[in-house]
Specification:
Elements (H helix, E strand, L loop, with lengths): L4 E8 L2 E8 L2 E4 L2 E3 L2 E4 L5 E6 L2 E10 L2 E6 L2 E9 H13 L6 E4 L4 E6 L6 E2 L4 E7 L2 E6 L4 E6 L6 E2 L4 E5 L1
Antiparallel strand pairs: 1-2, 1-9, 2-3, 3-4, 5-6, 6-7, 7-8, 8-9, 10-17, 11-13, 11-16, 12-15, 13-14, 15-17
Length: about 170
Amino acid sequence: MSEQEIRYFATIGDDMREILVEDGRLRIDGEVSDADISTLPGSDRQHLRMDGRSLCLFARRRNDGWVIELEGRLFEVRVEDERGRYIRELASHAAPVETRREVRAPMPGLIVRVEVEEGQEVVPGDGLIVMEAMKMENELRADAVGTVVSVEVAAGQAVERDAVLLRIE
């Protein structure tokens, strides 16, 4: 790889493209492209010239990627350089993924209601437990899809901060 060569991987939906920038030239999946993009000063509007066409697009940064609006269509795009991609792949193989999660008490309080039972499927946003702390009721909700494998508390029980309330797999 030359000093002037930078390799990127762009993912649009489920479609990944390898983009190589070499001495100012662009190769997409190995083929030389005449694509050129420039920013219009003072805006998030971009000007794209590609395959003999001239297009305007809007690009907004979001979380780990970009949202691109082009010709009335929205595209979510994630771009990684070669080094970042390599590090991510190493990290994903470094340790097994923990599938069991514990829901813990965020503060000391009293369990008012347990809204799930063992074996119940939950999705993000489902209510799990209602606890009272400092004269306020707080509902703890699921943050991922899973199955309740154990409920460790019951209504009327006092708990300390960080106590395990239930486990989800």
